[in-house]
Design goal:
By secondary structure, the chain is α+β, with helices and mostly antiparallel strands. It folds into three domains: about 100 residues, no CATH class; about 130 residues, Jelly Rolls (Sandwich); about 70 residues, Phage tail protein beta-alpha-beta fold (3-Layer(bab) Sandwich). Helix content is about 30%, strand content about 30%. The strands form three sheets. Strands 1, 2, 3, 4, 5, 6, 7, 8, 9, 10, 11, 12 and 13 form a 13-stranded mixed sheet that branches.
Length: about 325
């Protein structure tokens, strides 16, 4: 939030803050400290810069309006602003009035194109804030590419796992592509894990549409809160089934929760937290099931415990990786 010395708006939205800063910077003298606080606010979140640039565009557009028309459009703005006790907001409110009156705002306020890539290293978890207000939590060894366009918000989960908290926007669906699967939403909270053989989707809040990447628009599985599914390598989506989202997204708090999970799945997940991959020695070993909880930053404890839980042993290979084999 911006410094209260620079804005009399009290509790504000980002657009209100942008307007207050815009007016503040029109003053004949702006001290160095105020400019420093403005730069800090501008760089705090991509949405701050976007809202401020919209106001700048409106201000420039107003220069093209005849003086008489500009005055007429602005006359009511200070009155409305005074009633809300936002005296310094009046000028910016007038600019917005001009924009609405001339139909300029819809053109200047179109969502900006945005591209970015984010990744995490071994053992790292990272939270990413996007320009639309959506937030992505990345697990260890995960990588995403983000592409925002006017009518679509797209994210490619290239590897790993991510939790998506999507800002609602019916005009721009949010699409996550991972492996052979695709998830489409307008606003919700869900987790996607891209594995070597399948992509798993779990919904914590809202509704999502899951389909094969090359499937038709009518071919999808709908998930609501507490439901999950997976997409195999061919793009086939499994019917929705009940899940425990808290267990399956426990990685956000540094835990690995396995509930009747196959050792093949366990090994693949654990490998994201180790320097060398964890392997299973055979299909029979991979099909064994495990139910337990471990800390993601201490996977050695899991390997030490496995022989006491299941009829297996763990051996170290020449390359330093480890393999689970039958006793």
């Amino acid at each position: 939030m911006m410094d209260t010395r620079d804005c009399a708006c009290g509790q504000t939205t980002v657009r209100d803050e942008a307007a207050c800063w815009f007016v503040r910077l029109q003053e004949p003298v702006v001290d160095v400290d105020a400019r420093r606080r403005f730069e800090a606010w501008l760089n705090e979140h991509p949405q701050h810069r976007n809202e401020f640039e919209v106001l700048q565009g409106l201000w420039k557009a107003a220069d093209l309006v005849p003086a008489a028309r500009l005055q007429a459009l602005c006359e009511e703005a200070p009155t409305r602003t005074k009633r809300r006790a936002w005296a310094r907001y009046a000028v910016a409110a007038g600019v917005l009035a001009v924009a609405v009156g001339l139909g300029l705002f819809s053109g200047l306020n179109q969502p900006s194109a945005y591209t970015a890539a984010f990744s995490t290293a071994l053992g790292e978890r990272r939270q990413v804030a996007l320009p639309d207000g959506s937030v992505i939590d990345l697990d260890s060894r995960s990588r995403i590419e983000v592409r925002f366009e006017n009518n679509r918000r797209a994210v490619e989960l290239a590897e790993g796992e991510a939790m998506f908290s999507v800002q609602h926007d019916t005009s721009r669906p949010f699409v996550v592509e991972a492996g052979s699967g695709k998830v489409t939403v307008t606003g919700t909270r869900f987790d996607v894990r891209r594995g070597s053989a399948e992509t798993r989707v779990v919904v914590e809040q809202g509704t999502v549409k899951v389909q094969g990447r090359s499937a038709s628009d009518s071919d999808f599985v709908s998930l609501t809160a507490g439901m999950g599914t997976h997409v195999d390598a061919s793009g086939k989506v499994a019917p929705a089934y009940a899940v425990n989202p808290a267990e399956l997204t426990a990685w956000r708090s540094g835990k690995l929760v396995f509930n009747n999970a196959s050792l093949s799945d366990v090994a693949e997940q654990v490998s994201r937290y180790r320097d060398k991959p964890l392997k299973v020695g055979s299909a029979a070993v991979g099909n064994l099931r495990l139910t337990s909880v471990f800390k993601s930053d201490n996977t050695d404890a899991l390997l030490k415990a496995l022989p006491n839980i299941l009829p297996v042993a763990v051996r170290t290979l020449d390359d330093g990786s480890q393999e689970i084999i039958s006793k």
